[in-house]
Amino acid sequence: MARRVSLATPLATPFSASALPRFALALALSSLLFLQGCGSLLATFESGAIEDDPGERTFAQRIADESIETKAIVNLHAADDRFDQGHLVVQSYNGYVLIAGQVPQEELRQKANDVVRKIRDVRRIYNELEVAAASSAMTRASDTWIANKVKTFLLTGSDTPGLRVKVVAEDGVVYLLGMVTRAEADRIAEEAADTSGVQRVVRLFEYID
Asked: BON domain spans which residues (predicted)?
């Protein structure tokens, strides 16, 4: 018995002959609008070149910092069970890494350096770990409140680059990371020091001037 073979129906042509003039007109108009947009953009910046902000992290740098923070916490707890008895805070800004919190023994402070130093993209380590009992939930809540208040003041201030600063509070001590000029660093530190609840301000900036 002969097998039946079905022939696929050809797809319809997307544009009929009568539609071609309308399509050509639409394409021409779209091209004109695109060129006008480019012209407007160029006119906006015709007075000078577009320059990068040296204090801004690139997208890749932001991802690298997040990776450093995650790896540091995971690797520290994996390296020694005694870290579980303390409280660890790790923050990174453009490879400048802060390790803060409390550990039960002095030996763990050095061990923290050794572990974090092996992580890719780490450029500098600030070890602010204290040999003490882990901070209480109330203290941590207060630290969060202080850090948020300082950050809010920096963001709303007219002469402080709040978006380029990372604020960390630990046991009343405020640590400041970011890429700023020295003049900006002075203003930021002064603003942070004037915030109620702050006991001390520690600058960990990367200077861009």
From this structure: 65-133, 142-209
